TrEMBL record:
The keyword Metal-binding applies. SMART domains: Zn_pept. It catalyses: Releases a C-terminal residue, which may be hydrophobic or positively charged. Residues 1-47 form the signal peptide. GO terms for biological process: proteolysis. It comes from Streptomyces harbinensis. GO terms for molecular function: metallocarboxypeptidase activity; zinc ion binding. Keywords: Carboxypeptidase, Hydrolase, Metal-binding, Metalloprotease, Protease, Signal, Zinc. The keyword Hydrolase applies. The lineage of its organism: Bacteria, Bacillati, Actinomycetota, Actinomycetes, Kitasatosporales. Residues 138-443 form the Peptidase M14 domain. InterPro entries: CARBOXYPEPT_ZN_1, Carboxypeptidase_T, Peptidase_M14. Residues 15-24 have a biased composition (Basic residues). This is Zinc carboxypeptidase.
Amino acid sequence: MRTSRAPQASPASRTARRTRRTRRYGAAGAAVLSLALALTLGTQATAVPGPPDAAGGPASAAPDTGIRQYEVTGVRGAPERSALAATGTAIDEVLHGSVLISADAAEAERLRALGYELAPLPAAAAGSGDVQAAAPSDYHTYESMRAVVDAAVARHPDLVSSQVIGRSHEGRDIIAVKVSADVAVDEDEPEILFTHNQHAREHLTVEMALYTLEELTSGYGSDARITRLLDTREIWLIPSVNPDGKTYDTESGAFRSWRKNRQPNAGSSAIGTDLNRNWDYMWGCCGGSSGSASSATYRGAAPESGPETRVVADFVRSRVVGGEQQITAHIDFHTYGELILWPYGYTYADTAPGLTADDRDAFAAVGRAMAASNGYTPQQSSDLYITDGSIGDWMWAEEGIFSYTFEMYPRSASGGGFYPPGSVIDRETARNREAVLILLENADCMYRSIGKEAQYCS
């Protein structure tokens, strides 16, 4: 049992610290697949079908916000997509030769004035009828999510604990759920973190957290693989990083297609910070976020200015014990696009300061193994377009954590976008079971996937 915590190591010592940690954990674990899948372009988010566009065609819209979805034509490669993203526009979906975006009328006109060609998305492409959630009641609310967690703690007190790690802007608890054999003991084992719901409208990710919790607890003692993992790992789940945004997106009884948190911005009537552009690594460096408070990708007034970002970052920093970060691997769940992404997002380069060729190869090998299990597309984050201030880049560069972003179902807007029907929740969360287990099994030595266990993890 650990009895003390040491302060966070300096940036200069992170590489050495990472090597020490992987050596300590590397004695056990199974080899992973390193199947290469063909890289294809995918999506990152979208909106919901709604009333006709002002030009007369159908478009995607949220009734309370006036947000519609448009296709922007003539945007082909990653540099052109990055240039569009640099205007402060949130790219929803990447197609061949175009992209989909969500925008209100003012944003659409601003982009047209910049020379972009926008066409309202046909309703059939945006998802309708039986491919779209009927109502927010298809998903757990923040309150019902808390009830599920509390019930799991009550049923499995030796396996599950829950703690409030901080509060949102509006005062809601942000909770971290720990799952491990002898859960009350802080053991010297690899720790794995799963975060969900940074973006408010991505409710399927909360369902993913609850699925994982149920699968781990129900499998302990009956499933040899899960039992072995819980005996040798400490697993953390943060089911909702953005509880205010989640609540706002659904509390009216209709989806609002809300992305950001609900924090006011000084000097502006615009609300909210994009939490996944608010992390303290390469914040605002590279055109991958917006400095405008009205933008969907507004990066905030400063790194970690979003209280929710700071809560999670402080929790991660608190897991530095004896000078070493105990969290070794991480997935941040988003919707949609069926992608598995790894750092860096701020640069197109495969390697960059703090990310060696071996690091990149280990990221890719485990990422491709996970993708082989769920059918997602594995690729470096910036293959889509440049982002900065993202959680994955921060986790790796600042804390030495192998961090992946999963973009869950659907693959395209035709599957329901942000709001697929409740009938697919069980199927699409279970679809990631094997990928989660692959990461858990490799968390003690990610370099095993490239045959370098002896070098890094002996």
